[in-house]
Amino acid sequence: MLANVSTNIESYVLDYSIDDEFQFSDTGGNTSVNLLVSGKQEKEKIASLLSGKYNIHYSAFPTTIEYGSRIARKTVTLTITE
Predict the structure, then answer these.
(1) Which among 4, 20, 16 is positioned nearest to 55, based on CA atoms?
(2) Cβ 59 vs Cβ 12: under 8 Å
(3) Contact of 31 with 65, CB cutoff 8 Å
């Protein structure tokens, strides 16, 4: 999931998370958004995602986070097909 994704700041690391916002409905049924994959340490969970649309959030952050640290985050749609 991080192939071809990079940062030009040496002291920053990249990670991602995946949620199911596209399955969210604000009336009845599923009324919450769930974090399905919290980061690259859970990459094996991606294989168990059902077909559908998901948000994948890419984050770049410093290896040492301090007050005032800058964190960059971009969200794209992840589509899983059978």
Answers:
(1) 20
(2) no
(3) no
Lookup: tokens for 50: 């059902």
The per-residue pLDDT for range 53-73, each reduced to its tens digit, is 999 999 999 998 889 888 899
Nearest partner of 57 among 37, 41, 29, 31, judged by Cα: 37
13-58 per-position pLDDT tens digit: 999 999 999 887 777 766 688 999 999 999 999 999 999 999 999 9
Q: How many CB atoms lie within 10 A of CB 2?
A: 11
Distance CA 22, CA 10 (A): 34
Asked whether the beta carbons of 20 and 4 are under 8 A apart, the reply is no
Tell me whether strands 52-62 and 12-19 are parallel, antiparallel or unpaired.
antiparallel
Can you give the pTM of this predicted structure? 0.82
